[in-house]
Structure prediction request, 160 residues.
Amino acid sequence: MSKKVPMTKEGYDKIKKDLDHLMKVERPKNIRDIEEARGHGDLSENAEYHAAKERQGHIDAKKRELEYKLTNAQIIDVSKLTNEKVVFGATVTLADTDSGETKKYTLIGQEEADLKKGKISVQSPVGKALIGHKVGDIVTIKTPAKTVEYEIQEIAIAVE
Prediction:
């Protein structure tokens, strides 16, 4: 049973680029490394050969993972979304109800999440708590560290 992997067009393109690099650069280089290591003689005691074969296994696993994500990608066209409620692709401005501190997060797929850039997964505790809410709603977010209440101040949809 395959599970759809939600992502933006940019996320899909990045995975395609990563797969392309893997297949056109890393895999051929590794094949050359295996051939070179074979030329060094006895394979049973050849550390370079064993390392290259292990790297080949990692490359093949990464290839399967990227292909799975591309095959099961559900590209969300954020240009068709509205800012009435928090949805995939929305950028949400939150205010901590205790401290007044504001945070801004863009909700995206797990593959694209990067907290340092304010991009969080819709599957994260914060992402799950925000989905479906509107401006003015108070949202209680339970994280492993603490429970925080935020007021949704703004919902924006970035048109690509």
Summary: The mean pLDDT is 88. The radius of gyration is 22 Å.
